[in-house]
LacI family DNA-binding transcriptional regulator (Sphingomonas canadensis), 334 residues
Amino acid sequence: MSKKVRTIYDLAQLAGVSAATVSRALAGKDLVSAETAERIRKLAQAHGFRPSAVARNLRTRRRGAIGVVIPLGHERGQHISDPFFMTMIGCLADELTERGFDLLLSRVIPDREDWLEAMVDADRVDGLLIIGQSDQSAALDAVARRYLPMVAWGAFEQGQIHCSVGTDNFLGGRMAAQHLLDRGCRRIAFLGNPLPIEIRQRLDGARAAVAGAAGASLIEIPTHLTAELSAAEIAAFLDSADPRPDGIFAASDLIALNAIPLLASRGLSVPGDVRIVGYDDLPISRSILPPLTTIRQDIATGAAQLVDCLLKRIEGKQTGSVVLNPELIVRAST
């Protein structure tokens, strides 16, 4: 029986070349002739040889993993099982594995100002993807001054130091409120917590739209993202509102989905009595009754942009922030 090929040295002996030549051939380096490289690859395939990822990472000083971090400074009860997080993480996992990286996922309650610096200094990953800036923009900026391979999903503000990829939240908020105004709504409720920058920009956009509409008003109801808390806050608002709103702009699809059954339990129909617009266009928004009108964030494209920017930064290249256009998706809730 032929000797088991366990290392590049075994494969080099079999091919009659040096271990360095085998390493270059399997890495696709141009220093090896096409004929020799093809012969080595075929031998490796025939003998079931796969280069050690650990050895490769030691040579390149890479870890082969990307940290995906979800900071929850403003919404500590939120979980990774949140539909938005699950959708984004799934898209990121696809993008990263196709590029040969593992994903190291962390949900962080930022109780210390240096929580992000501690993660960077631990040096466990090749770079960091931050999903949502929460109320931690200052922490992101502080780390971005000295650490290049980091990109955040979320809003962009003039003057920020960290690189971000996200939707134009001001425009999305304005589009949502304008759609309700165009449908005849004049008493519009905004449901969402404006503490994180993304939600604040959506609220600012809604304010701008309503300010330009004669006889229209915007009622701002601070609302959590978690199902239990948001349901209680929405119920309290509906029970005390006089007159009731004829339109609701929810800062997320999840908040909108909580509002619909609460309206129904009070004898109010959607969209007959109250029209509702959400934000995100999560898959569940298409399957509820009535299907939800929402502002679409292209999460798959956003995930691809996040990974592209991060890989360039891992190579030492600077990248600018990316602002994607939102899209109004009209369904039966308006």
